[in-house]
Amino acid sequence: MVSLTFAEQVKIILSRRSMTIKELAEVIEERTGKKMSRQNLTQRLNRDNFQEQDMRMIAEILGCTFQLNILDTSE
């Protein structure tokens, strides 16, 4: 089973919602009060570099549930 990274999932959902990265960055900035540019968010998506609280907030903004899984890949 192929699993998508958080960033890959966000990009797919943005496309399905007809929402841009810039629009998502603006909502994040409104919610947090911290500067979030389109370029900064794009870089974070490319690196898939998010803290759990950020992932939860982005999922909420996109109207999605957030579930964190730890999988044993040794089998």
Can you give a write-up of this model?
By secondary structure, the protein is mostly helical. It is built from four helices and no strands. The protein has helices at residues 6-16, 21-32, 38-47, 52-61. The mean pLDDT is 92.
Blueprint of the fold:
Layout: H1 6-16, H2 21-32, H3 38-47, H4 52-61
Helix pairs in contact: 1-3, 2-3
Summarize the structure.
With 75 residues, the protein is mostly helical. Helices cover 57% and strands 0% of the residues. The chain has helices at residues 6-16, 21-32, 38-47, 52-61.
Characteristics of this structure?
4 helices, mainly alpha, 57% helix, 75 residues
Rg from alpha-carbon coordinates: 13 Å
Q: In percent terms, what proportion of residues is strand? A: under 5%
Quaternary: single chain
Mean pLDDT score, rounded?
A: 92
